[in-house]
Amino acid sequence: MRRALRGYRAYVRAAVAIRLQYRITIFASAAVTLLWILLVTRVWSAAYQGRDTVAGLSRESTVVYLTLASLQAIVINSPLMWIMAARVRSGEVVFDISRPLGYPGQMLALQAGTSVTQIAVTLLVVPLAGLIGGLSGPAGLAAGLLYPVALLLGWMLNGLLSLLIGLTAFWTVENTGIAVLYRFVAAFLAGASVPLVFFPAPLRAVADALPFRYIVYQPAAIYIGQVNGPAARDGFVVAAGWIVLLSGLTALVWRQAYRRTVVHGG
């Protein structure tokens, strides 16, 4: 067990080192995020047109939600889908699966290392994001304590979902179309650009039935006080249930992908 943990920690450190080699890309991505915050918060501020609240959210709360959701994307977004597909195409995946560490664990460790770097970048741009968009403190002590828990659950969910999409490369080799479609659908149903409280009832029911809401909406809604008390607790239970379910599904899909790789010689 200790040996495996050391191996995964090595993957995390390697991911940090690799990510830091592309500093220009990192800061360019942060600049794009800041521009997106500027645009989306201005559009939603204009949409309120002098009204105090819409669907139970004040203009200020909506702006904070959208700013926070955009910053969360820097931390949570996962490159696993493209990394896995590239390694399948190049044949490097053969070296990955020959290592004593489990392949899904290797990929999640790489994602953890990437997130460490992205957290550092997020902390640097938070002051600018607050000026460009709008940020305030959490709705209360409970919100401040529950927010990082919700964010961690969202990170785990997104990592598992990205891993599942990445595993499709073992069948398709090129999964760019699937990955782009996933990113679009996941971002929309997670409430990244439109808070779920503004969704029409049928679409809200779909979003509530899927795990995406726990990636973006749940953490940000807890922070601004839109979700609290029993609703926050129940959300944690459901998110944890999705993590268990997706972990099992990932194991099943990986088993089939591994057999396919061995049978076809990589």
TrEMBL record:
Keywords: Membrane, Transmembrane, Transmembrane helix. It comes from the Bacteria. The keyword Ligase does not apply. Pfam families: ABC2_membrane_6. The chain crosses the membrane at residues 20-44, 64-86, 107-133, 145-173, 180-201, 235-254. InterPro entries: ABC-2_transporter-like. This is ABC-2 type transport system permease protein. The lineage of its organism: Bacteria, Bacillati, Actinomycetota, Actinomycetes, Micromonosporales.
